[in-house]
Amino acid sequence: MQMNNGSKRQVSFNDPVVRALLFQILIVAAVVTMGWTLYQNTYTNLVHRGITSGFAFLENSAGFGVAQHLISYKEADSYARVFVIGLLNTLLVTLIGVILATILGFIVGVSRLSKNWIIAKLATVYVEVFRNIPPLLQILFWYFAVFLTMPGPRSSHNFGDIFFVSSRGLNMPAAQIADGFWAFVVSVVMAIVTIVLMCRWANKRFEATGVPFHKFWVGLALLLVIPALCALIFGAPLHWEMPTLQGFNFIGGWVLIPELLALTLALTVYTAAFIAEIVRSGIKSVSHGQTEAAHSLGLRNGPTLRKVIIPQALRVIIPPLTSQYLNLAKNSSLAAGIGYPEMVSLFAGTVLNQTGQAIEVIAITMSVYLAISISISLLMNWYNKRIALIER
Asked: Which intervals hold domain ABC transmembrane type-1 (predicted)?
């Protein structure tokens, strides 16, 4: 294609720009046509079967109980509140699983590179066993073979008269807000701000003089001392309600139901096996010369790993680690196998069966998992860009 002065541009199929534009128009037209056809067929079938559509059913009373709810709930509440409860339960499992799997995965990943033969082999066995067993089977194992086989509340395992583990779950003290709560919150915020300012000052001082500062211990002291002084002045921020055995069950306190414990433990153990391999490969990607250089400066193995190896390995670890977080969030839907009231089991299961609004319920459930996955991806991508190497 050529363009001469005073001449019009000729449109030719041999022009790659024209071909690309044409193909994009055809693809968009095909997608729109398929979407419109699917909508018309679905709407026609719903009309013929007399099935109403829309989201008005969310205002109707649910009429059933929920085993675990992080907010107040009664059977007369609406399906919309049931949706919120299912969403919160899903987020609870995802958050706890991500934190525990990350900690366990990093420990196992580093252990696989240990010079201690026993530790390295035990870490290898852990990875090879748990990552090769389907997560649903692991969930069923922890639920039926571990938690449901525990003794009843009267014969529960007692840990210091504070924690009680039985076939009903884990009973623990419940925190209740006291008079000094908000003052305590302000003191914690003040302590965090002070720690941030202290770390910035310590970093500038180290860059200027080369003299290190014990940021960890000073920060820990600030985080403990400032809120403690606030509690002494304004009173305790929380009161603790202890669980007590009455009849055949515990009364008071918090209870983590067996379904939650089994699901969280299974997803943590399963995902940590993959994270361990990601951590191991990330550490191995760092040149051994970095370790030798750190040792030549007098750093021991621990500080070398924390301050030299891990910060460089994170640039390799973060992208695949994001995929594991997404898998954990989506694998939480396997809770339907043991009846834990999360989105799939509670909303796409019970609510769908009661209302018959299959399209709306499934659309809402899919949108929730899509939103959770996109949020995790955005957060991890932001962190990945923040730690990326800056070209000079």
From this structure: 87-380
